[in-house]
Design brief:
By secondary structure, this protein is of the alpha+beta class. It has 7 helices and 4 strands. It has a 4-stranded antiparallel β-sheet, with helices on both faces.
Length: 177
Amino acid sequence: MRLVVIGVNHKTAPVALRERLALIGEDVTTALEQLERFTDGSVIVSTCNRTEIYALVPKEDDTSSAMSISSAAVNAHVLRIKNWLADFKRIALSDINDYLYVHCDTHALTHWLRVAAGLDSMILGEPQILGQIKQAVHLAQNGQALTTQLGWIVDQVFASAKRVRNETQVGAQAVSL
């Protein structure tokens, strides 16, 4: 399995486009069901400042190890997710592609950790994002889109975000003394 994240945020896309790409309410449930057809689990984080799809790919070849999945195969899955998003939101891929970012493997995990810890927010350390990610994970669990492997990754993201927040609070207290 390979972890990928595909999304837009306050750094890459204007507000109007972020609003058009937002996945809220029943859209999330439907989206998770559709993504299940070609991923091995997914979580959708959609807030006023970002819409991100975290997914494990590829689903087709469960026997291959992470090291043997070629970059071409990952790129094909990323393109499939991008096309799916464009179709789902009824926007031409050419209209959104330049605004989308893609991270794979450790870069995707690092990005998710930074988002969960509030380090990739408009306001540094903003605490609401962790709750929004928890809600997104809950929706993925309810939709059976959170596989065991993706659940393990989520656990690591939450544990790391908690450590970052605790260390930040301890450091802030030390400075104020």
